[in-house]
Fold this sequence. Notes:
Elements: E1 2-7, E2 10-14, E3 21-24, E4 35-43, E5 48-56, H1 61-73, H2 78-83, E6 96-97, E7 102-105, E8 108-112, E9 116-117, E10 131-133, E11 156-159, E12 162-166, E13 184-186
Amino acid sequence: MLYGIMAGGRVMLVASEAEGRPVVETAPPTPPEGYEARMAWEDGGTAITQVWELVPREGTAQDAALTLAQLQASRLSDDDALKVPALFPRWVAAHSYAEGNRFTYQGSLYKALRAHLSAANERPCDAPSLYAVVLPSTAIEAPEWVSGKSYAKGDRVTKYGQTYESLMDGNTLEPGTFGSESAWKQLTA
Length: 189
């Protein structure tokens, strides 16, 4: 056991218990990302104890604001997330994604549909069972799609509760069905 006295916020070790108090050392905590553990000594009257404080690493106010925004981004609605895609990380292979995690890939905001480990051969644009493009949920005024009607490029329709925009003139394909991806762009989630 070590013994010491406090002097100016520091511990000065002494030879025996008769000259000072027991000095109690503690293990430092594991700080979260962006923090560091700073050590200090506290004189409790019967012992001098090593204490730890978690403090943010120094950086600019801009760094702190960005970090705070990124921490809070996961709580945003999809509509609000679409307004600030730069707050979300880029998709990477060999990363563990939780269901609902959002990220950017080739200029679009995506969401993980289930928890998984990403793989290079399952990019977001090629793996619809793992990822979905984040789309606005706000209602867009559009008439119901009518079978047999020909739609011009840019026309908007509603089908299966979703809103679609025609990508070509003379479009008679039913939106939201297999094979219609090249004819219709889904506008709402």
